[in-house]
Amino acid sequence: MKANAGGDRPISNEALQRFRETMRGAVLDPAHPAYDDARKVWNGTIDRRPALIAQCRSEDDVVAAVAFAKQHDLLLSVRGGGHGVAGYAVCDDGLVIDLSPMHEVEVDAHARMVRVPPGARWADVDRATQPYGLATPGGEVSVTGVAGLTLGGGMGYLRRKHGLSCDNLVSADVVTADGQKVHASEREHPDLFWALRGGGGNFGVVTSFVFRLHPVGPEVVTLTPFFCLEDARRVLLAWREFTESAPDEATTAFAVWAIPDDPELPEPLRGRPACILDGMYIGAPEAGEALFRPLREVATPLIDMSARTSYVDAQSALDPLFPDGGLYYWKSLFLDELSDAAIEQILSRAQDRPNPRILVILRHLGGALGRVADDATAYSNRGAEYMLSIDGAWSDPAETERNIAWVRDFWSAMRPFSNGGVYLNFPGFGENGRELWKASHGANFERLRTVKDRYDPGNLFRMNQNIRPGQADTGEANH
Ligand SMILES: Cc1cc2nc3c(=O)[nH]c(=O)nc-3n(C[C@H](O)[C@H](O)[C@H](O)COP(=O)(O)OP(=O)(O)OC[C@H]3O[C@@H](n4cnc5c(N)ncnc54)[C@H](O)[C@@H]3O)c2cc1C
After folding, report:
1. What is the enclosing helix (H) or strand (E) of 150?
2. pLDDT tens, position by position, 201-237
3. Where in the chain are all domains bearing CATH 3.30.43.10?
4. Are 393 and 404 in contact (CB under 8 A)?
């Protein structure tokens, strides 16, 4: 066979055969019956055809795949949970390192640590840790991959009490571009460890993450009232006031969306545009209920799904609302404050969405995540009190251009109200290139480039929000 992504070096059948024999996992080519499923990612706008997909089962498989890509000058992409919104997990013509077969989580309840392989989803982690009454901060949807989410920062319902996912990373095992197996922690390869916490997939393939665990649950209180859009201003103003003195146990968001099209809900409500308060309280349930009650009563809800429930159920409640294969385009901005003018802009745009499935969500940050110094990890923007995410979602491919244009237009209109930073896990299609990276990492950008120079001077890992090594970085394209 011949694959010509990075250069034009043909791959002989013998070389491919040798590669297959080295690997414990399967190596799929386009003729394999599992190929089409394996190249699919969550975002249905991404339709790429790699030359090969290496389904790694061990760290040694990853070493072999990295070596094969280098030897044959193949473009390389790395796939964890496949939920990267920009779709960098899969590439055209090159080699995909697919880590999904590696997902067995190991808990050390005594040491309050969990070891997570790179193909695990947050549901795997929550299910393994909750029997001990423990958790580590993940995302708000449990089918999202641990790897990509953590490498970009990782914001979930525990962020105000226990910080970001990357803040809870204790160590990581990494296969670097030169095929070395490296253990990164505060003491070993500290620069690499710093860069992994918010610098994305630029520095190597992480084959194992160790996270710190905290007592959480098993019961938590959720906040989920849906109000009429006409009440949005009143609800948003009340929520802003709430966030000004909210305790760290409460992590909340304001959103404009639609009521889920759920057969268990009354027919007239299904799919109706609405504004929503969303959140979780992880302290004593009685205290959480008392804290959230006034927010639930700020207007008359159309429906209120707030509950006392298990942490595991709360973590997976949103899963069905982001189906695999839908069409998505998500873009974000960090806001240091939420001014009246910003609120007016958000409300007028959000009420004028081209389709009700577009989610406009303002997350409250601060708390533990805000108390970490900006230069302590590659993830920056610690001072931002809010993050606006404009999550475009639609199902008709003919509507793609219109939806993307609308999200971009809204995003541009909000930039003057932001601190200029973008959350790299919600990056659009990464089209802003270096501008996006610099704005998002601020003073950390140059240090990230130094680490990139050291660990990946040839830019093998470039299917990501790419940091180009060396001084010649024009940063105009991402990969
Ligand atoms: C439905 C949904 C909900 C989400 N909710 C949240 C949320 O609540 N909070 C939040 O912070 N984010 C959230 N995100 C964004 C999420 O953090 C990113 O999409 C993230 O990239 C997903 O990780 P993944 O491993 O599933 O993705 P993948 O697509 O597999 O990976 C994304 C990128 O990460 C890198 N990568 C992945 N694995 C490795 C590895 N082992 N070693 C090196 N590099 C690697 C690669 O560059 C890859 O292209 C959500 C996304 C979706 C789709």
Report:
1. helix 146-151
2. 999 999 999 999 999 999 999 999 999 999 999 999 9
3. 13-98
4. no
pLDDT for the residue numbered 450: 96
Domain with CATH 3.40.462.20 in the chain: 219-417
Residue 167 DSSP code:
G
Question: For the domain 219-417, what is the CATH code?
Answer: 3.40.462.20
CB of 145 sitting under 6 A from ligand 1: yes
Residue 123, amino acid: A
Sign of CA dihedral 25, 148, 173, 124: negative
Q: How far apart are CA 86 and CA 304, in angstroms?
A: 33
H helices of 153-253, in order, are 159-162, 190-196, 232-243
Query: With helix as H, strand as E and coil as C, how does 354-402 read?
Result: CCCCCEEEEEECCHHHHHCCCCCCCCCCCCCCEEEEEEEEECCHHHHHH
Residues of the chain with pLDDT under 50: 2-7, 472-479
Could you tell me how many residues make up the chain?
Answer: 479
**145 secondary structure, DSSP code:** B
Considering only CA atoms, which of 342, 357, 332, 347 is closest in space to residue 422? 332
DSSP code for 415: G
The bridge status of strand 95-98 relative to strand 52-55 is parallel
Ligand 1, residue 154: give the atom nearest the CA: 11
Tell how far the Cα of 297 is from the centroid of ligand 1, in angstroms: 35
Neighbours of 49 (CB within 10 A): 13
CB of 44 within 6 A of ligand 1: the answer is no
CATH 1.10.10.10 fits 13-98, yes or no: no
Measure 198 CA to ligand 1 centroid, in angstroms: 12
Amino acid identity, position 353: R
Q: Is the CB of 99 under 6 A from ligand 1?
A: yes
* Ligand 1 centroid distance, CA of 424 (Å): 10
Among protein residues, the one with the nearest Cα to ligand 1's atom 33 is 148
Q: How many angstroms separate the alpha carbon of residue 423 from the centre of ligand 1?
A: 12
Strand order in the sheet with 27-28: 27-28, 52-55, 95-98, 76-79
**∠ CA(105), CA(80), CA(36), 5° rounding?**
120
pLDDT for residue 8: 55
Which residues, in sequence order, are CB contacts of 33 under 8 Å at separation 6+?
A: none
The residue among 99, 148, 152, 142 whose CA lies nearest residue 122 is: 142
User: What is the tens place of the pLDDT at every residue in 249-288?
Assistant: 999 999 999 999 888 889 999 999 999 999 999 999 999 9
